[in-house]
């Protein structure tokens, strides 16, 4: 039964680590603007992340996306930036995989909760 608890807790922790920062970003970032991809960092395994700039209230901000497995960014291309109006430096762009990471994190957390509940159920039955 302790194995179920360990596995459940590990899945829950990983799920929360992956999903909570993205959920916070979705909650805080509601304003939209258009930005520009100014550079693309590439790794040897084919991953890429974009450095993008955008202007809010006459101030220029620069930010990076997370690593993505595909080269979906185009240098000097436009991007749709979603930012926090109280902290315009806090932002993300739609094509950066935020939604997928959030969904995967939530699934891991749900599996972790399910395994924890299964462990509790088995200890009460056995």
What do these coordinates show?
- This protein has 126 residues and is of the alpha+beta class.
- The protein has one domain.
- The chain is 44% helix and 33% strand.
- The chain has a 5-stranded antiparallel β-sheet with strand order 3-2-1-4-5, with no helix packed on it.
Helix content: 40-55%
| Helical/strand content category | alpha+beta
Largest sheet: 5 strands, antiparallel
Q: Give the domain tally.
A: 1
Major β-sheet strand ordering: 3-2-1-4-5
The termini sit apart by 10 Å
Please outline the helices and strands:
Elements: H1 2-28, E1 31-42, E2 48-56, E3 59-64, E4 78-84, E5 87-93, H2 98-125
Antiparallel strand pairs: 1-2, 1-4, 2-3, 4-5
Helix pairs in contact: 1-2
Features:
five-stranded antiparallel β-sheet; DUF3592 domain-containing protein; single chain; membrane; 2 helices; alpha+beta; transmembrane; 126 residues; transmembrane helix
Question: Could you give a short description of this structure?
Answer:
The chain is an alpha+beta fold and 126 residues long. It contains 2 helices and 5 strands.
């Amino acid at each position: 039964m302790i194995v179920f608890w360990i596995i459940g807790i590990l899945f829950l922790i990983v799920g929360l680590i992956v999903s909570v920062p993205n959920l916070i970003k979705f909650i805080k970032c509601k304003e939209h603007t258009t930005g520009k991809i100014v550079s693309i960092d590439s790794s040897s395994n084919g991953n890429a992340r974009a450095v993008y700039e955008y202007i809010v209230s006459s101030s220029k901000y620069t930010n990076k996306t997370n690593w993505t497995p595909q080269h979906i960014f185009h240098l000097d291309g436009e991007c749709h930036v979603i930012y926090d109006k109280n902290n315009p430096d806090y932002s993300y762009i739609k094509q950066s995989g935020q939604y997928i990471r959030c969904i995967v994190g939530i699934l891991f957390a749900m599996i972790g909760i399910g395994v924890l509940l299964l462990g509790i159920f088995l200890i009460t039955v056995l």
